[in-house]
Amino acid sequence: MYNKEIRVKLKRIGLGITKSYAKEGAKLSLNIYRMDSEEIDSLINELKNINNTKVIVTKGDTTDENTEKELIDKTIATFGKIVILVNNAGMVCESPVQDMTSEMWNKMINIDLSSAFLTTRSVAPHMISRKSGRIINITYQTAQIGTLNMSHYAAAKAVVIGFAKSIALELGQYGITANCVAPSPTEAELFDSVSGNFKNNKKADLALPHFAKVEEVAASAVFLAADPDGNAYTGQTLGPNSENVMFS
Q1: What is the reported pLDDT for 6?
Q2: CA-to-CA distance for 112 and 5, rounded, in angstroms?
Q3: Residue 155's domain is classified under what CATH number?
Q4: What are the respective helix, strand and coil percentages of the chain, to the nearest 5?
Q5: Which Pfam families does this UniProt record tie to the protein (predicted)?
Q6: Are 149 and 108 in contact (CB under 8 A)?
Q7: Is 192 inside a domain boundary?
Q8: Per-residue pLDDT at 198
Q9: Euclidean distance between CA atoms 157 and 219, whole angstroms
Q10: How many angstroms separate the Cα of 220 from the Cα of each of 26, 52, 96, 185?
Q11: Residue 234 lies in a domain
Q12: Is the dihedral of CA 211, 217, 218, 219 positive or negative?
């Protein structure tokens, strides 16, 4: 079973991961924040057409502890267990640090960091009792190298990486892994937001002259959840970025 929290644009990484898990035959429990009933029904039908996927939806704000409890309780009541948790909540807004308000900072931390903590805290007792589980956090390369005018976003995503390493140490004794996926901007994001000259110049700088596609980023989340493929990975951060970020 795949427990996925969607809070980003569904045409991007969130939807890509969801579809990839559906293709693998997972049962999906989705927490959706900003979609109306018609959009939710359309998404459910789209996923059901992939491998006859079983899907349930909880609508609510995952910075709210009541939403978290409803999400976990509903998932276990419907599917009997939670095998995989993917924390993918996120928002983006730009501001130089000298102009950043406390409200902007706190909102970013709540959505991009605290929601991952709340969901993980809620699901951990269940995974501990089962003595198995996979926790996958979607971060971003910004956590590793910083980004201009996005110090709050970089801070939140960097702490998610530290959080994953810590819970990997805590929960490993129960057979639970915790990892991160930190992509660079995907092809879809770049085509939407930057000029052709920028894309061409950036591509020429990469060791692999290729911007990652959404499905290529999603493949990392599938790999980390797979048995036996992801069994030996915990406390790690995978970077599908064509060499845009390199660490030894």
Answers
A1: 35
A2: 12
A3: 3.40.50.720
A4: 50, 15, 35
A5: adh_short_C2
A6: no
A7: no
A8: 55
A9: 20
A10: 16, 23, 32, 15
A11: yes
A12: positive
Task: Report CA 79 to chain centroid distance, whole Å.
Answer: 21
Q: How far apart are CA 116 and CA 94, in angstroms?
A: 21
Active site residue 153: yes
Query: Given 21, 153, 174, 233, which residue is catalytic?
Result: 153
The number of distinct structural domains making up the chain is 1
Contact 236, 180 (CB under 8 A): yes
CB of 209 within 8 A of CB of 203?
yes
Q: What is the pTM of this model?
A: 0.88
Query: Does any domain span residue 179?
Result: yes
- d(CA 224, CA 230) in angstroms, rounded, equals 4
The domain in which residue 90 lies consists of 2-185+214-238
How far apart (Å, rounded) are the C-alpha atoms in residues 155 and 49? 39
Read off the tokens for 96.
């130089």
**Geometric angle at alpha carbon 184, from 179 and 185, rounded to 5°:** 130
Residue 246 lies in a domain: no
CB–CB of 167/121 below 8 Å? no
Per residue of the chain (248 residues), give pLDDT as tens: 444 433 333 457 888 999 999 999 999 999 888 788 899 999 999 999 999 999 999 988 889 999 888 999 999 999 999 999 999 988 878 899 999 999 999 999 999 999 999 999 999 999 999 999 999 999 988 788 888 888 999 999 999 999 999 999 999 999 999 999 998 776 665 455 545 665 666 566 666 656 778 888 899 999 999 999 999 999 999 987 655 565 54
3-state secondary structure of 158: helix
Q: What is the pLDDT of residue 214?
A: 84
